[in-house]
Write a structure and sequence with these properties.
The chain is α/β, with parallel strands linked by helices. The protein folds into 2 domains: 5-206, Zn peptidases (Aminopeptidase), CATH 3.40.630; 215-288, N-terminal domain of TfIIb (Single Sheet). Helix content is 23%, strand content 26%. The chain contains 6 helices and 13 strands. Strands 2-1-3-6-4-5-7-13-12-9 form a 10-stranded mixed β-sheet, with helices on one face. Strands 8-10-11 form a 3-stranded antiparallel β-sheet, with no helix packed on it.
Length: 295
């Protein structure tokens, strides 16, 4: 199996502008993302949202790519229609003409450079191991990789393979030099991996690497009327991928109380206090640290 067609998608969220400016850079210097063994396509995910400087127009575009939604003619809001258009350009999902989709994102959370993988398998584990060997600060995030690809709602799952480059912290609608640089470096390492993978020239990789697997999301504390009654505790603020032990505070209530992590397992946070998730009152993801075997 070889990768023949790669798509780099930028601006899936209209106010995550790092990817859009990388796209503009690469459009003027396409050789930077070209490799001998495969073709590369650039695609702006949500240009209309970018024009109005918002995450999305009607709904989050990166939640529209489950197969059942792509096939549902009754879904006709802007992002549903845009998802169906992208599915025709890059897919169709399940029989995709695009072998690998790399979707570029940024976050307001202190996650650093993160490689988010929604599926399992030798290609993914080798990719993660290679990237970490070249860029050790990268965190590998296994995002609901137990699901079938058809169930995933992420844009990158339109490809036969798909990953997300997620880098932060950076405010929405802002360019930050270090985040721009890390996003570019991580993308370049992915493209280099594909070239080496295709030409059977991968270096010796470790037998396993550290990674984090999504467990669940936590919502901000709410009252019976759905009003917020607390906020993310300073104990976990900016502490993405750091451990939180049972009994340690995760929320500070406005009345002076706190809410602590329950259970008996130390977990790790990600997307802590992400600004984009306030519309759903999502406060943080909880992760489990794992040893990812490199197949």
């Amino acid at each position: 199996m070889s990768i023949k067609n790669v798509a780099v998608v930028c601006g899936t969220h209209g106010n995550e502008i790092t990817g859009v400016y990388l796209m503009k850079k690469w459009q003027k210097a396409f050789e930077q993302i070209s490799r001998a063994s495969f073709s590369t396509k650039l695609l702006q995910g949500n240009p209309k949202a970018y024009e109005i400087n918002r995450r999305y127009v009607d709904r989050d575009l990166n939640r529209q790519f489950a197969s059942k939604d792509l096939e549902n003619p009754e879904l006709s809001h802007y992002e549903a229609l845009r998802a169906k258009s992208i599915n025709q350009i890059l897919g169709p999902k399940g029989k995709s003409k695009t072998d690998l989709v790399i979707d570029l994102h940024t976050t307001t959370s202190n996650m650093g450079p993160t490689l988010l993988m929604p599926q399992k398998g030798p290609f993914y584990s080798r990719l993660a191991a290679y990237v970490k060997s070249k860029m050790p600060e990268v965190v590998v995030f296994c995002d609901e990789d137990h699901k079938k690809n058809e169930e995933h709602h992420l844009l990158c799952t339109v490809g036969k393979y798909g990953v997300i480059v997620e880098v932060g912290p950076v405010p929405q609608s802002v360019l930050r030099h270090d985040v721009f640089e890390q996003s570019e470096q991580l993308t370049q390492h992915i493209l280099d991996f594909v070239e080496l993978f295709n030409t059977d020239a991968l270096p010796k990789l470790p037998s396993s690497i550290e990674a984090f697997r999504f467990v669940k999301s936590l919502k901000l504390p709410l009252d019976a009327d759905g009003e917020r009654i607390g906020m993310v505790h300073k104990n976990i603020q900016d502490g993405d991928f750091k451990p939180v032990k049972p009994g340690e505070p995760i929320f500070q209530l406005f009345d002076g109380g706190t809410v602590s992590l329950d259970g008996d397992e130390t977990l790790y946070t990600a997307f802590v206090n992400e600004a984009a998730y306030y519309d759903n009152n999502l406060a943080t993801s909880l992760m489990r640290k794992i040893c990812l075997e490199v197949e």
